[in-house]
Hints:
Blueprint: H1 3-16, E1 22-26, E2 38-40, H2 43-48, E3 59-62, H3 75-85, E4 94-98, H4 116-123, E5 129-133, H5 143-147, E6 151-154, H6 159-169, H7 173-178, E7 186-191, E8 201-202
Parallel strand pairs: 1-3, 1-4, 2-3, 4-5
Antiparallel strand pairs: 6-7, 7-8
Helix pairs in contact: 3-4
The structure holds adenosine-5'-diphosphate and magnesium ion (MG).
Amino acid sequence: MGKSYAARELVDAAVAGGAATLALILDDKAPAPQYAGTVRANVDDLRARPPAEGEDPTRIVFKGHTLRTGQVVTTEEIAKLALELAMLPHPPRVLVHIDELRRATSPSGREWRDGSTPRLFSEGGGIGVSATWTTQTPQRIPAEAFDQSETLGLFRLDGRAVRYLDDLLFLDRRLVATLPTLQLGEWALYRKGEPWDGRVYRF
Ligand SMILES: Nc1ncnc2c1ncn2[C@@H]1O[C@H](COP(=O)(O)OP(=O)(O)O)[C@@H](O)[C@H]1O
Ligand SMILES: [Mg+2]
């Protein structure tokens, strides 16, 4: 319903505005990249081929899983790289964006596949690493990811997903009624601990 489109706008704005100086983006859903930046298959590929002259050094789009090369990319290796960069003497301001966080979790969605991704959520803020993510199946994402996210952009959701999020986040009644009616590209803002602003946004 427009999640990746909106996330791309956010990542680009974060880099353009200086909130982040390096965006590490996991984007391997479709054959063509959904995000702008220098495309690499995975972290090994990035280390072997750092951005060349004329390539964007501020946005790296990881796009593993190509049929041609058979290379894959995991949320774990990207989270590890971000945590490692944060330890440098002059660290970049890193933003990790994971398109479809579902790929970081077990089939039930109750557990993480690795330790680094949840560390990114729990410790990233304290060491200057931001994380953003999208999901189309909130029920399959550990509740912890919602607890540790300050801001959520909620796109159109069906009744079941709304009930799940409502149990977790105690949503405003008007927001609960609005979510199933949103159109492509429209989203509502949820900020932890704040009342709903009553607005529907669109990029
Ligand atoms: N705000 C928007 N304005 C114009 N086109 C949009 C907008 N949001 C999404 N789209 C288009 O709609 C399609 C689905 O959007 P996408 O972001 O891929 O959805 P999702 O990530 O939620 O599955 C894409 O072709 C995208 O370019
Ligand atoms: Mg998407």
